[in-house]
Each structure stands twice: as C-alpha cells, then as structure tokens.
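Re: export button greyed out
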Amino acid sequence: MSDQKAMSKGEAKYNEQGEVIGIKAPVYLNYNFTAGAAAARFLLQVKKGVLTGQRCPRCKQVYVPPRGACAACGVATVEEVRLSDKATVQSFTIVSIPIPNNPIQPPYIIANLVPDGANISFIHLMSECVNEDVHIGQRVQGVWKPEAEWDYAMDNIKYFKPIDEPDVPVDKIGKTDREG
Amino acid sequence: MKQIAIVAYQQTDCVADAGAANEVEIIMPVLKRTFAQVGITNAQDVDFVCSGSCDYLQGAAFSFVLGVDALGAVPPIKESHVEMDAAWALYESILKIRMGHADSALIYGFGKSSPGELPIVLSQQLDPYYLAPLWVDSVSLAALQARMMLDQGLITERDMAEVVSRSRRNARGNPHAQLAGDVSPEAVLKEPTYVSPLRRADCCPVSDGAAAVVIATVEQARAWGVPYAVISGIDHCIETHHIGMRDLTDSVSTRKAASNAGVQKGPIDVAELYAPFSHQEIILSRALELKNTTAVNPSGGVLAGNLMMASGLSRIGEVFNRIVGGEAGRGVAHATSGPCLQHNLVAVLEKGEKA
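Workaround output, generated via the alternate export path:
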C-alpha cells in the first residue's frame, strides 16, 4: 500500500541499487455500456414496479432477470411473463463483514430468491426478519421504495421480508408453474 | 494424420452499432444458422467448442462467459476460449482434433466494439512499460507504418487508394458488408488525410457482430453429408512487441507462417487477407508472394467491415465459401492480431475430393 502511494503519477519505484522496479500506468477507458435488449425490457418494467421473466420455448423454464437466452437449451427466450413480488428463499447467507462503500451495516442477509412464476433465482437483500430464523423454503415479499423513487434498477425493491405463508418444500422450490 | 475440413460458415451483418443487443443476442442468430447449415441442433452435437473475444472491446468483464448462454450447455460441454481473434480458436480446435480428443468443433468469434473508442482501447494491448502508457492508438501506429512504406518508395498513395476502391467494389456482392460501393481511386485521393498519410477510407470501419465456423474430420463431414473444404495447412507466427525492432514494411511472421502452411505448394485462386489498413493488404500480398492470378479479398475484406475477434475467422469462412461455391479450388486465408500486423495466422484451404 505504501509502495502504491509512493508511485503517484509519473513516479517510479526503485530498489536499493537505484533500478526502476515499478512504474504507475493508470488505465482509463470510457464505454457506453448497454444492458442487452432483454435486460433493457426488464428494466423498463421494473421502473413501473413490475417484475418480468422470460420463458424458454423449449424447456419452459422462466428466467429472471432475463438475458434473452435459455442458458440450458441455447435458444432465444421471447415470451415475457409477469411475475409476483412474492418469492421463496432458495439459499441465503448472513454477511457479518462490512464491505467498503456499502451503506448496509452487517449483519445482514443476502438471499437467492425464486419469485412466484419463475424457475430461476435472483439475488436480493432480506430484512425485517430475525436473521437466525431465516431458512430455505421460507416465503418472502418485496418491500418497495415509494413510487416516486422508482428507477431502472432492482433496488426499487428495498428488500424482501418474511410473510405468513407455509414454507415451500426444498424439492419444490423453483419447480412450480413450469408448465404454466 | 486426420484431414480436417470446414463444413459451415455464417456471420452477422457488420453494423456500426448493434444497439442494446448483448453478447448472447448477437451470437445466437449466427449459431442457429451455423447449426442449420450442418443439420445439427446445438453445441451438444459437436465434440468441442472454442470462442474468441476480448472483454476490453465492450468493457464488460467475463463477457465471453455470457456468450456460452448461446450454446445449449446442459448437459455440460467441452468448451474453451481465446482472448484473441477466433481464427486462433480455430487453430486450438484443430490441435484438439489432431490429438484425437474430438472429431468436430464449433468455433465462434464476436465483438461489440461500438461501446468504446476502439483505437484507444487497442492501445492497451501494447507493451505495458513503453507504449501503453503513451496511449499510442492503433490508427497512429498504422500511419507510421504507411509513412515508412511511402518514404521508402515501396508504395504510392495511389496504390493504397486502389486497394480501397477494389474493396468497396467487391463488397457490393457481400450482403454483410458495412461499406460498399463504386468509389474510384481518384475519389479516394481527393479525401483529406485523417491520421496522415492515412485517409479515413484507408482505415477499416468499427463494426459490431459475430461469425461462426464448424470444422470436422473429413470422415465426420462425409457422415453429415455436407459440402466441405479441407484445411491442408495452417500456422501462426508472432513478432516482437517492440515496434522499433520490427521491419514494419514487411511481414516476416506472415512469410514464415505461409511457408510452414505450404502456401506455395499449389496455385492460389483466392486470398482473404485481414488487412485493417489499405497499405497492409499490399504488405501481406507481397509476404504471401501472391501473383495477379489470385483474387484478393473478393468479399471486400475488413475495409468493408471489421468484426474484431471474428474477422480472422471470417477470412477463413470467406475462402471456404468460394471453394464450396465452386469459384476456387485452392485458397489462402490470413488473420492478424496486434499493432501493425504483429501476429499472423495463415491457413490453406482446398477443395475436398468427392465423397
């Protein structure tokens, strides 16, 4: 770290013999990044407070967020499916280490959640829960920001909180509605 | 040694901006047509898959992994990737087949160069101590090379303009070309210089898109019952990254690769050369010792559209098209990488015997 500090722009790092053993050459490149056509459609719907997935025409799995392809079959996913903001916990972890520049204070929960109507999970936060009681199969629902703050982003949903519904058995998570 | 043949080639249109489309959305339509050309369903029907791409182009880390979504990789497939033009993915696939680990392979390359400033992005492939910190862009380096050629009397600006004119004219017959039309050498010479001595027309355009090829042993090609072209030779050689230590007016690595690939062992009906700048086509034609009986870049070459990380593979695909189309019996395909033709691959394709 101190070595890096000494190597501000235009400076070199030397060894005891006075040889240059390091230079600083920062790289800055600017890109006009695009999310992808399928992801762009998803984000347009999230802005309106709606979660959408895409169904594979072959295996019928519903992907969220969609990327335009079924990764299993290698075919384009065109049919769009409106999903619920209710979901099932597929897996989770309790984060105890603070992450630089992350405003969320540990301990908090990151979970793989399968929204109703989809077969594939996405990652989101869980809150308003007792961390030690969170479990696989638990039913949760999204807690949205006020509508005026909605943007083209998944954090329109602040977090998911547990709801009073029976657990989904482990072998049924992500398996429902596949034929729907 | 098993003979290896190309059995399919497809590419997207070369477009200046593919819009919102992501890697998968660009690749998938090409793969679909490639599979259809062989009569197979997806990557499950070949033994090996290898792709070529570069994450720096679109500024997205691990974008090549997203590309795998286009393949149908459940159950798992054997897959590899080169951070290079997919012509080198084809080279890896040939080694895989020669080692007896596969009888067939799908190769694809893709590039979405429009999100970044390509000549500046390419400056970061230079050596990290002396050149990359200077941000020397790819067009400026090519201009230095062209200047040496002109000053030594090895070419004239008119020679360069004639390359451009022929490229544009040939590209009229290429439905995937980005730049095509009737442009006389005189009209090119009337253009102002862009990075002197280069005019804009001397430089390939920046393009988004993808290309794909399927190769197989000749036995497998016959089993599929599709027309094929045999890869009778292939090699690649690289020169030092110190620009000043190279003879930029020649391409010694191309000469060496061509000799090893057996280019001169027969007549050359067609040559598709990856020359991103007009004067480089002349350097390459000389290094390959092409005679005026060879049709050079009948597709228009990359001056008509340059799919980074796929254009080298496309050169091989274009020669394949000419051979299975009956226009040529034997042809040479060339791919390049790095500044001023640093790294070059040469492949010889020949008409296969009737099954």
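The longest strand of chain B covers residues 208-217. The button fix ships in the next patch.
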